[in-house]
Design a protein that fits this description.
Blueprint: E1 3-8, E2 13-18, H1 28-39, E3 53-56, E4 71-76, E5 83-88, H2 92-98, E6 101-107, E7 114-119, E8 122-127, H3 136-143, E9 149-152, H4 155-158, E10 166-169, E11 175-178, H5 183-189, E12 192-197, H6 212-228, H7 230-238, H8 242-250, H9 271-280, E13 285-288, E14 299-303, E15 309-311, H10 316-323, H11 331-344, H12 348-360, H13 369-381, H14 384-389, H15 393-400, E16 407-408, E17 411-412, H16 422-430, H17 458-475, H18 480-487, H19 492-503, H20 511-530, H21 542-545, H22 559-563
Parallel strand pairs: 1-6, 7-12
Antiparallel strand pairs: 1-2, 3-4, 3-6, 4-5, 7-8, 9-10, 9-12, 10-11, 13-14, 14-15, 16-17
Helix pairs in contact: 1-17, 1-20, 6-19, 10-11, 10-12, 11-13, 12-15, 16-17, 17-20
This protein binds iron/sulfur cluster.
Length: about 575
């Protein structure tokens, strides 16, 4: 039985709640959206007590279904002003699901810094005053051995910074970040520094006895499909850093604050280069799981020449936005900045774009990794410049008077130039989340017939992918099972069958796309009431007027096609 645990931080009380008929069909991302849509005034201050911080588990989290233990954390975003779901690896989804918890809903705000311990019996409250000022690594090192899951904010969340993130620890003590939209600031506004989950006495996720065999068969078939999928090998070997060379070859690697599509020296940031280093550097790991139940292990642990930890994990988006976009091709410098971001608790994509804006403003030279590390470390020190960076790209651009700010709805773009990947550009423009690749990144495959630079046809593709990706987050999946299903659509039946078993009802063939559309619709209505409309569905001006050197293209998808994305 999936339940909500509502925690009132002001009163220091909690209550268990069965999922009502409205919420029963949702999980993960969708449950967050449904709760915010039904219970919250969209005009309420994102950093006020009316906002709700929700940690939700996917419908298939905690089950044996592969790659299904990513956690969704959401709230009204202080960055975009709209609804926000940020997704992370770590231990939380599996552990909470196995405790029968569909979501923990944090309401109101504590008077003083608080730690909440969640157990199978409810929640207890302790002072977190001794933890104030501590970074996420310090906290994880202290608590990870004694708790099944550790969820915390660093200094950025405490300061209510607009790009602050929430750390969710892995079982071996590395922070993974629910990074986007400044949700760490929502946790900070509630004076909630730390959530510890004690899973003592937790059972397993219940699968009805008469359905266990069917569930198992579908898990087996999906697992085999994932392992046989050609892309699995590349990601297993090189991680998401496999994209560095591929995106550069396509000519859409963000370079010099999105001026160019290729970056000289990018090879030194690539998965192939990491593989070389892993042969030479002690403790350097190329295959690491962000969460239990993963069959792919696309994460990594980067170390220096002596084998000391630089950062785990360094992902493509960071390599692109802190790396190529700043013309920094020193992998160690990027990893050091990533470590600082994880510790302070900020979104590396915001910081990468903000650093490039600082370079545009002349605060440091393009490609100067050492200077960038020094500036990033000011985030921890709390200097004026550091405080500017933790508020993200938009705030940094506005403060420095730089007009070239690559954001949509105030959220920084991901590591793909939308003048080449125009479908991704449509997603950036129209996603209720603001510029967000996980909402619907559309990359051509070598044997496919999708044309990324075509002026027409991008809208329907983006609609389709946005709906599917939203449903992916409702299951607790990383994108892997979905990518495999894209290649072989017949595989959806395995997801549908297992989802139906968990819901206790058969679901239609179109379950995934209908679920995604339903959730996005609620988000659009919430956002509209919050003041975000179709007029905000646009990219920064320079993408419409400056041609990208590699493909001689501007972003020229017809406005009507963009307006129709969510009307289908
Ligand atoms: S494939 Fe990568 S993102 Fe997905 S669950 Fe595994 S480690 Fe995490």
């Amino acid at each position: 039985m999936r339940r909500l645990l509502r925690v009132n931080l002001k009163k220091k009380t909690y209550a268990w709640e069965e999922l009502n008929s409205t919420y029963r069909k949702y999980a993960g991302h969708g449950l967050i959206t449904s709760i915010l849509f039904n219970e919250m005034d969209p005009k309420a201050d994102a950093l006020g007590p009316e906002n709700k911080l929700i940690i939700a588990t996917g419908l298939l989290s905690g089950t044996p279904f592969p790659n299904a233990n990513r956690v969704s954390i959401g709230a009204k975003s202080p960055l975009t002003g709209g609804i926000k779901e940020a997704n992370s690896g770590g231990t939380a989804a599996k552990v909470l699901a196995q405790m029968g918890i569909a979501a923990v809903v944090f309401e109101d705000a504590a008077d003083d810094w608080t730690t909440v311990k969640v157990t199978k019996d409810g929640a207890t409250f302790e002072s977190a005053s001794a933890l104030v000022g501590k970074g996420n690594y310090d906290i994880l090192n202290t608590y990870n051995k004694d708790y099944a899951s550790v969820i915390s904010i660093g200094q950025a969340g405490e300061k209510l910074a607009k790009s602050s993130a929430i750390s969710v620890g892995t079982s071996d003590g590395h922070p993974r970040m629910a990074a986007r939209g400044g949700i760490g600031a929502v946790m900070g506004s509630k004076k909630l520094k730390l959530v510890l989950i004690d899973d003592t006495g937790a059972g397993k996720v219940e699968i009805p006895a008469d359905k266990k065999d069917v569930f198992r068969e579908n898990v087996r078939a999906m697992s085999k499909a994932i392992m046989d999928f050609p892309m699995t090998g590349g990601l297993k070997a090189l991680g998401t850093a496999v994209l560095v060379n591929l995106v550069d070859q396509m000519g859409c690697a963000p370079t010099k604050n999105f001026r160019y599509g290729r970056c000289e020296g990018h090879e030194k940031l690539s998965g192939e280069y990491m593989m070389e280093l892993s042969q030479k550097r002690p403790n350097f790991v190329m295959t690491h799981k962000c969460s239990d139940g993963c069959l792919v292990s696309c994460s990594n642990i980067l170390t220096d020449e002596q084998g000391n930890l630089l950062c785990a994990s360094v992902e493509y988006e960071t390599l692109a936005l802190v790396g190529t976009n700043c013309c920094i091709t020193d992998l160690d410098a990027v990893a050091k900045i990533n470590y600082i971001c994880n510790d302070v608790g900020v979104d590396t994509m915001e910081v990468g774009c903000a650093l490039a804006i600082c370079m545009d403003a002349g605060l440091l030279a393009w490609g100067d990794g050492d200077a960038a590390v020094k500036l990033a470390s000011e985030m921890k020190e709390g200097t004026e410049k550091g405080s500017m960076l933790i508020d993200g790209a938009q705030a940094t651009g506005e403060k420095l008077g730089v007009s070239r700010i690559p954001t949509v709805k105030r959220q920084a773009l991901a590591g793909y130039d939308p003048r080449f990947l125009k479908g991704t550009g449509v997603t950036y423009a129209t996603s209720p989340m603001g510029a967000d690749h996980t909402s619907g990144n559309i990359i051509p495959t070598p044997d496919g017939d999708y044309n990324p630079i075509a002026q027409t046809g991008q809208g329907p593709v983006s609609t389709f992918v946005q709906r599917h990706n939203t449903a992916v987050d409702c299951m607790g999946f990383c994108l892997f099972p979905y990518l495999v299903c894209c290649a072989v659509p017949a595989l959806y039946q395995h997801i549908n069958t297992c989802a139906g078993i968990m819901l206790g009802e058969d679901v239609s063939e179109n379950y995934f796309i209908e679920l995604g559309a339903d959730v996005i619709n609620m988000e659009l209505k919430f956002n509209e009431r919050a003041g975000i409309t179709k007029a905000d569905d646009k990219l920064p001006d320079f993408f419409y007027s400056e041609k990208l050197d590699t493909c001689d293209q501007v972003f020229d998808v017809d406005t009507k096609e963009i307006e129709a994305v969510h009307d289908r």
